[in-house]
Amino acid sequence: MNLVGELVLARNQILQFTDALEDSSFTAATQRLNLITTELQERAMKTRMQPIGQIWSKFPRIVRDLAASCDKAVRLEMIGRETELDRTILESIKDPLTHIIRNSVDHGIESPERRREAGKPEEGLITLRAYHEGGQVIIEISDDGGGIDLERVKAKAIEKGVIGTDAANRLSEAELINMIFQAGFSTAAEVTNVSGRGVGMDVVRTNIERIGGTVDMQSPPAGGTMLKVKIPLTLAIIPALVVTTGGDRYAIPQVNLLELVRLEGENARRSIEYIHDVPVYRLRGSLLPLIHLDEELKSAGVARFDHADSQEAPDNAVHEVSSDETVNIVVLQADDRNFGLVVDEVNDTEEIVVKPVGKQLKDIAAFAGATIMGDGRVALILDILGLAQKAQVLSGVGESSRHDEKGASRDGDDNVTQPLLLVSLDEASTGAIPLSPVARLEEFELDRVEWANQEPVIQYRDRIMPLAFLSREVESSARHRDHATPEREDSDDRGETMQVVVHSRESESIGLVVSGILDVVMADVRASARTSSGSRQSSAIIQGTVTDLIDVDSVVSSIVPLSTERADAGLAGGTSH
Amino acid sequence: MSGIDSQYCTFRVGEMFFGLEVEQVQEVIRFQSMTRVPLAPAEVHGLINLRGQIVTAVDMRTRMGLPHLDDELPMNVILTGDYGKVSLLVDEIGDVIELADELFEHPPNTLGNDVRELVRGVYKLEGQLLLILDANAAIQVAA
Predict the structure, then answer these.
(1) Where are the alpha helices (DSSP H) in B11-140?
(2) Total count of domains within chain B
(3) Nearest CB neighbour to B39, from listed A8, A297, A370
(4) Which one of A315, A379, A423, B70 has the fewest CB atoms closer than 10 angstroms to its CB?
(5) Count of the separate structural domains present in chain A
(6) Which pLDDT belongs to residue A151?
(7) Which residue of B has its CA nearest to A245?
């Protein structure tokens, strides 16, 4: 793997020379080298991939033995055995998966008598399902058992002192379910030799998070439980956000990233408040503790001899925000706590190759490794958990802020509030888009809009993404621009851009073009919604403004059939040999 | 070191003349731009990209408690061993020389502590002494 990496780098250097030399026979030779290297790289990646069925093969036996010892009848169904995963990841999910399955048999599936009473077949069913989705592997472990007894979880949480009674009553269902991931938590009424000893789901979660994955527990109304484990395809390459602080670049793994907040000028000074010198920011009504990355990293205060360029300013211990300054806050999640990391600059997201660092640096908790950026320089990868622990945002005090956070959803009756993305549309009207299916916010130059079959599309990540103009103004300027191609040189607003909300559904993306991105709010849309007759839009009052609720489904369905065809065509064209 | 002459890669740090067995040295490269590592021990000067591999650079001057040179860029001596790859930043690279074992002697006890833990032995050359660096000790930096 390392050798292949070196080969790729050497190839890249040779390719650069080729461009300069203009020798046709040399060019042909390097082209061949290029092709072979690419193929070799793909093959090398493939040898690391192995089907998940390998670690599943011993599960039927575990289930059978365990079921027999608990006097239960359990059938195990496995779907998607052939799903491939990086070998190293495969190893590290083996134990957590085994644990989850044991749990399902022991706690999930009820005894045959109780199942009969509930009118279910005596034989319980555990389903393992693995599939690829959006560059990740998803493993679902579901059972048709009794589901999670929320009242018992709540009682247990209060008993263990994990949470106060008031706070417990405010938690939503999903939050309660996720309480089982707390350390030392077991709702099993009695301790069996299989489970219930309090080392459980928290270990499972720690193990899965260590490899950059997430675990999510759902208890569908139909009964039973479903655990969804999401893991990256490979440990070696991860998506990350690159930020700059103190002249150095750092990569933040995207799994930790929640959102980005940019405060400008007056707004920045006003919205950052201090509690006894500790900066906080009110993010949609809840307090977000802030950490300044440069302070955290410079605290060692070592002057380096040839870094004159990056030592531009002596450490200014307290960050007074001046009025013309912008503040970039990267909102991160570590161990269920949110905090804001203040950085000088947010650059871009990139797929980075994680490289190990020498043992001299292994002890620094703030870094998870290093990577090599496009220009050949090394950048450090931040370990968000380590950084948070160092800055002590995870210590006990966090508990209360955590529940304040939960309090945000308490004003509505259970879960009718949802995060909405506010965008500006034509003539200063405002629209709201449900945030959850929004994959990214992008800015494109208007020039990049192309037309296929009279429909607007854009090239996005090597695919063709159809565009839906929610704003007539932007649409007309995009159309105009395209027809006026010859005179483009003298149009003075050539760099004009448009804001696009990239909306993802079942691996299809469509771009919703809006006039501007305003904010993200939590709002209860059902209470104030009013549907105007004959239109597919409804309106609601959000933050004191009448806002059009954009029915993304209908917008999407109006163009998606087209897009599926296109994407297929585009793919076929791209991979033909 | 029984009877057979050993080859040493030599370099200078301050006024001292060091040698390392050639087997331990992978290559010598010019100074490269580095990414500094906040929070790291002072000896760790930064990280360099060695053809796709990330190598920690340990500054020998800091390691031995010497002040930095302002006007000269150090050289990288890339070491390889059980510990992986580490780069030592040194002032100047010398020749590879072959030395007979008779010239070898253990370091005198009067040597200062900073330097003594780094030196395995001394070769008495004409006009100067060559200190044999203990690579494992050299890259050992307090975290």
Answers:
(1) 60-63, 113-116, 135-138
(2) 1
(3) A297
(4) B70
(5) 4
(6) 74
(7) B38
CATH number at residue A427: 2.40.50.180
A residues 347-376 lying closer than 8 A (beta carbon) to B: 355-361, 363-364, 366-367, 370, 372, 376
Task: Answer yes or no: do A44 and A73 share one domain.
Answer: no
ipTM above 0.95, yes or no: no
Examine residue A160 and state whether it is found in any structural domain, yes or no: yes
Residues in chain B whose Cβ is within 8 Å of chain A? 33-49, 51-56, 58, 68-70, 73, 83-86, 139, 141, 143
Q: How many CB atoms lie within 10 A of CB A117?
A: 10
Co-location of A38 and A59 in the same domain: no
Q: What is the tens place of the pLDDT at every residue in A417-448?
A: 667 788 887 766 778 887 777 777 778 887 78
Strand B6-13 with A430-434, pairing: unpaired
pLDDT tens digits, residue range A370-422?
888 767 788 898 888 788 877 776 544 333 333 333 333 333 334 456 677 88
Nearest CA in chain B to A379: B35
What CATH code is carried by the domain that includes residue B109?
Answer: 2.40.50.180
Only one residue has tokens 């159809």, namely A466
Q: Which of B54, B69, B70 sits opposite A370 (nearest CB)?
A: B54
- For residue B47, the SS3 value is strand
CATH assignment of the domain containing A103: 3.30.565.10
Which residue out of B54, B59, B85, B141 would a mutagenesis test of the A interface target, given it has the greatest number of A Cβ atoms within 10 Å? B54
> What is the nearest CA distance from B122 to chain A, expressed in angstroms?
27
Q: Domain limits at A204?
A: 52-232
The continuous run of DSSP H or E covering A246 comes out as none
Which tens digits make up the pLDDT trace of A104-141?
A: 887 778 888 888 888 888 888 888 999 887 667 889 88
Dmax of chain B from CA atoms? 47
Residues in a beta bridge with A244: A249, A345
Residue B1 lies in a domain: no
Alpha carbons B54 and A377: distance in angstroms, whole number: 10
